[in-house]
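Shift notes (night). Ran Fumarylacetoacetase-like C-terminal domain-containing protein while the centrifuge was going.
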Amino acid sequence: MADFLFEPHAPISIPIARGGLFAVRRVYCVGRNYAEHIVEMGNDTRDPPFFFSKPADAVVVGGEAMPYPPETRDLHHEIELVVAIGKDGADIAEDDALSHVYGYAVGLDMTRRDLQALAKKAGRPWDMAKGFDHSAPIGTIEPASAIGHPGKGAITLVVNGVERQRGDLAEQIWSVPETIAYLSRFVTLKAGDLIMTGTPAGVGAVVKGDMLEGRIEGVGTVSTVIG
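Came back to this:
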């Protein structure tokens, strides 16, 4: 057996509601998947979906605090449905896409909005705006075998007891099957992958000490404190 230069990092995992752990491989994120959010960000609703990524170790679980990240003065919340892939596949047919889903969770795509704005203006990647440490708080994964495949239901985010975001899963421009089928044309999806499916309107800034509580009807919750 080969000797590692240093001890390999422990795998990143998310608790499953009915026991066990989901080992995270990759985190894909859909940009702009709710029309009202697209409009509030000044973009065109006719654009096809696009994707960016977060590293697996950006995931924060168990309601743990999320440190306020460095190099930003404009940290924003984005509440999202998270799809947990449980079966490998490439070029997946839309009518077969849901067979590749293990379950669902509620997540937060935290964003350094000022860095994202600079990257957009310069035509540069979003990595430092989206893929920073602790940028993906995610709640417990609910197996699809228990809750089905939610295509509608309220998605909300409350900050310090005040509602900031509200939408419905039915308002997604690209459904979960469509998103999986489209993404799998570009990469092979594997068990352990997560897909964060976009946020409704109402994104806004948070500061140190803020308590974030997200909920999706029929799926679950996510919470974190900005530390």
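The radius of gyration is 17 Å. The mean pLDDT is 94.
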